[in-house]
Amino acid sequence: MLAEGVKGWLTNTDLFPGIDKAYNTHSGPLTGSEPSADNLGPDGLPADPDARGNVVPFRRQATADAAPRTLYVSRKLKNADDVLAWAKDQGFANLMPAGELHVTIAYSKAPLDWMKVAPTWQGEELKVDAGGPRLMEQFGDAVVLLFASSDLQWRHREIGEAGATWDHPDYQPHVTITWDRGDVDLSAVQAYNGPLVFGPEIFAEVDEDWRAKLPAAE
Predict the structure, then answer these.
(1) Is 26 a known active-site residue?
(2) What DSSP character marks residue 90?
(3) How far apart are CA 162 and CA 148, in angstroms?
(4) Mean pLDDT by 10 residues, the chain (218 residues)
(5) pTM of the model
(6) Is 102 known to be catalytic?
(7) Which is the catalytic residue, given 70, 120, 156, 176?
(8) Is 111 exposed, middle or buried (0-12, 13-18, 19+ CB in 10 A)?
(9) Of 65, 113, 132, 193, which has the fewest CB atoms closer than 10 Å, so is most exposed?
(10) Element (H, E) at 89
């Protein structure tokens, strides 16, 4: 009865000229329920034409996965100038350019679907407060500042669960300061103890020749 009442109101107003002719042409009853998937044909419509009524159901389209690719996830250090000033006071030379200081979160040489990685809940900025465990170490030629961050640890693990690989036994957040230790005695260096403020996550494909493309050291 509601449908008939709406029809009467529409045909008796001047808001929709010609609506009465449309009703006469399509006079079948309105159907409010959508047939089950088992009863749909290959075109997404009911296989039985009599079941179609005058309501066109939503056409379902299959979604394809994104093409797998390698994945490198990082966050740039926003207060890099503070860290570089500290490093110079400690006697380090040939420092990384400020715009290149970062923390690596994922480095997967094995391809994966990036769309399987959930958005980070930490947002556009991640801050590691001053204090806490800090150490200076040398990884190969790289002199790095080690620090603790449960947020980064969880994010690294989350990306791994989405299919990313990691070529090291453990994940340890760090910032590379320089590739030239010089004659600095790391055991005598007082590690930077101030806040570390990182920008948004950056997704990129792995570039194994990245070091050769670094700008000149500061």
Answers:
(1) no
(2) T
(3) 23
(4) 56 60 55 57 58 52 76 98 97 94 97 95 94 96 97 97 95 96 94 98 92 70
(5) 0.69
(6) yes
(7) 176
(8) middle
(9) 65
(10) helix 80-89
